[in-house]
Design goal:
CATH topology of the largest domain: Jelly Rolls
CATH architecture of the largest domain: Sandwich
Shape: elongated
Strand order of the largest sheet: 4-5-6-7-8-9
Number of domains: 5
Helix content: under 10%
Distance between the termini: 127 Å
Oligomer: single chain
Number of strands: 30
Strand content: 35-45%
Largest sheet: 6 strands, mixed
Number of helices: 1
């Protein structure tokens, strides 16, 4: 049996509500009873209709010690309670009461709390359980839609999220959504890029496209700490590069730790030191060094990687020198070894000269010469 109860809206709404409560008490056994305010054909158990601009129902508990709310039950068990907390005047949703096990809260300033009764920020999320996940953004549309979180201050904004076309990377962009103005990107494999969308197969990729100076700054503020890069293999430091705090005008490259005898040092005066952090000349080497040596068995043209060149065959041959242009300051040492039975001729490039002549000839066994390009011709520094 179905019974529809019609109650026309009157000037005194309180009378209508009292009448509904009375009829509800009188008809407890009538199945699917429907009640309506402002309608003759309610479509649900309780329906209110109106044509006013604002259709507002008021719940007003005048007892200052109690709360005003609605409870939703399932088979007689309270599941959620929605209402106004009389102490804070916050709107809350709790699982067992308005102010008990609060799942959502909103205060008069618009602060929203999830899992917290009284939010202290615009969005305040609190997790008291064992879950490590506080917030999930999941874009499930199969089209080309990005998953974006945007931060704005009215004129400038930042976008953070995942691009649909690059589902394995997280992007941070300035004044644009994720397709432009990329400032920071991290791939699922851990590769990081700054200033570019196209991450190369490198762990860190820095990209700049401005006329201003760009790069990276390492600023050590502590009074005794060093400003350094460490290079490690399997956790062990094999090289260290940076500024030694104890000698702060010197840039050093050393092995596992800075010392007074670094592998490489350059001062603010542009002096370079090998094995010393106090080079006193433009180039100051306090360790041994080696020079490229090679014995040739045929005609040869001296190149960039050569220094000491010897002739080691029976018979005469010619070594050709590189052009003067582009090799100013370069030095070579030539020798005719005791295995050579013919002359070793040094031939300058094209019409260039060696001490005013087109060639220089070594005629005796074990005879040698050291020459240098002075920018105009090859000069003989010494013979031996």
């Amino acid at each position: 049996m179905k019974a529809n109860i019609y109650i026309q809206k009157q000037d005194r709404v309180v009378f209508s509500i009292l009448l509904i409560l009375l009829l509800s008490a009188l008809l407890p056994t009538i199945a699917q009873t429907r009640m309506g305010i402002g309608c003759t054909n309610p479509t649900s158990i309780f329906e209110i209709r109106g044509s006013e601009a604002d259709l507002i129902q008021t719940f007003n508990n005048t007892n200052t010690s109690n709360r005003s709310g609605i409870q939703f039950q399932n088979n007689g068990t309270a599941k959620f309670t929605l209402g106004l907390d009389n102490a804070s005047n916050n709107l809350k949703i709790g699982t067992t009461g308005i102010n008990t096990s609060v799942r959502l809260s909103i205060n008069a300033s618009g602060y929203v709390g999830i899992g917290v009764a009284d939010a202290v920020q615009k969005l305040h999320i609190q997790e008291t359980g064992t879950s490590n996940v506080m917030l999930t953004l999941d874009q499930t549309n199969a089209g080309d839609y990005d998953n974006i979180l945007r931060f704005e201050n009215g004129t400038t904004f930042w976008s953070a999220g995942m691009r649909d076309v690059d589902a394995d990377q997280f992007s941070l962009c300035n004044n644009a959504d994720l397709a432009a103005n990329q400032r920071f990107i991290i791939k699922a494999g851990g590769n990081i890029a700054l200033g570019t969308l196209n991450i190369a197969s490198k762990r860190l990729h820095l990209y700049f496209n401005t006329a201003a100076d760009n790069g990276m700054t390492i600023d050590q503020q502590h009074a005794t700490g060093n400003s350094v890069f460490d290079w490690k293999l399997s956790g062990t430091t094999y090289a260290k590069m940076g500024i030694d705090n104890a000698n702060n005008d010197v840039f050093e490259i050393d092995n596992s730790a800075f010392s007074t005898t670094p592998d490489f040092a350059i001062t603010s005066g542009n002096n370079i030191g090998i094995g010393t952090d106090q080079p006193t000349s433009t180039f100051h080497d306090k360790r041994s060094f080696g020079l490229a040596t090679s014995v040739k068995a045929a005609a040869y043209t001296a190149g960039l990687w050569d220094y000491f060149l010897g002739l080691g065959i029976a018979g005469a041959t010619t070594f050709t020198l590189p052009a003067i242009s582009g090799t100013e300051g370069r030095m070579y040492s030539f020798v005719r070894s005791d295995a050579a039975t013919g002359d070793l001729t040094l031939d300058a490039n094209a019409s260039e000269n060696i001490e005013g002549a087109l060639t220089y000839v070594l005629t005796a066994a074990n005879q040698g010469v050291v020459i240098m390009n002075d920018g105009t011709e090859w000069k003989v520094l010494t013979t031996y």
